[in-house]
Specification:
Distance between the termini: 30 Å
Order of helices and strands: HHHHEEHHH
Strand content: under 5%
Radius of gyration: 16 Å
Number of helices: 7
CATH topology: Four Helix Bundle (Hemerythrin (Met), subunit A)
Oligomer: single chain
CATH architecture: Up-down Bundle
Number of strands: 2
Largest sheet: 2 strands, antiparallel
C-alpha cells in the first residue's frame, strides 16, 4: 500500500484513465440510470468521483475536504456531466505537486500518511466506481488486472473499517473459480451475476 517518495502515484493515474474511459462511453440518456451503489444513479457515481478529485485538492492545501458521499450528483451538475469531470481532474492533477504528494494527511484508522500513499488506496475506489458506472450505463469495461490485484489487497486492509462506518456493504459469497475482479466485487458486497 506504500510507494517510495520518488515515485509518482501511477496506479492512481491509470485508474483515473480507466474511469474516464468508462465515463466517456456513457450515453447522454443514461446518466439517470440506477447504479450498483444503493440509491445512486450513474450521475451520482460520476459526481462522487468528481468530488474525490476536489477532496484530494483540499488535502494538498490542508483544507477541510468536501463531503463527497452526500448528494454526490451535485458535483456532476449541468447538461454535460463530463465537463465537470474534466475540470475536476485537471484541478486535481495540477494540485499534485511533489511537495503535495509528500504532505501528511489524515487517514481514518491509520493516522497520518503521505498523500502519495493515500492515493494508492484510492485505486480501490476508482476501480469499483468504474465498474459501477459501466454497469449503470451498460457500457463495456475492462479493468487492469494489476490494479485489480492491488485493489483487492487494499480492500482486505481497509474494508473492515469502512464496513464499521457503513460505507461498504457486507461481503457476498465469492463466485467459485473466478478471477480477482469478481472476488473484489463480492468482497465489497456487489452482486456480479
Amino acid at each position: 500500500m506504500t510507494s517510495s517518495a520518488t515515485e509518482e502515484p501511477s496506479g492512481f493515474h491509470r485508474a483515473l484513465d480507466l474511469f474516464e474511459e468508462a465515463a466517456s462511453a456513457v450515453p447522454a440518456d443514461a446518466w439517470g440510470n440506477p447504479s450498483p451503489c444503493s440509491e445512486w444513479t450513474a450521475r451520482d457515481v460520476l459526481g462522487h468521483v468528481i468530488g474525490i478529485q476536489y477532496e484530494i485538492v483540499a488535502l494538498t492545501r490542508g483544507d477541510v475536504p468536501p463531503r463527497v458521499g452526500d448528494a454526490p450528483g451535485r458535483f456532476a451538475a449541468g447538461p454535460v456531466p463530463l465537463a465537470s469531470w474534466t475540470a475536476a481532474r485537471a484541478a486535481c492533477t495540477a494540485a499534485l505537486t511533489p511537495g503535495a504528494l509528500d504532505r501528511l494527511v489524515p487517514f481514518a484508522g491509520f493516522g497520518e500518511l503521505p498523500l502519495r500513499t493515500l492515493l494508492d488506496t484510492y485505486v480501490l475506489e476508482l476501480l469499483v466506481h468504474t465498474w459501477d458506472l459501466a454497469q449503470a450505463a451498460a457500457v463495456p469495461v475492462r479493468l487492469d488486472p494489476d490494479l485489480v490485484h492491488h485493489a483487492l489487497a487494499t480492500a482486505q486492509v481497509i474494508a473492515p473499517g469502512l464496513r464499521r462506518d457503513g460505507l461498504v456493504a457486507a461481503p457476498l459469497p465469492a463466485p467459485r473459480g473466478t478471477g480477482e475482479l469478481p472476488r473484489l466485487l463480492a468482497f465489497l458486497g456487489r452482486p456480479t451475476g
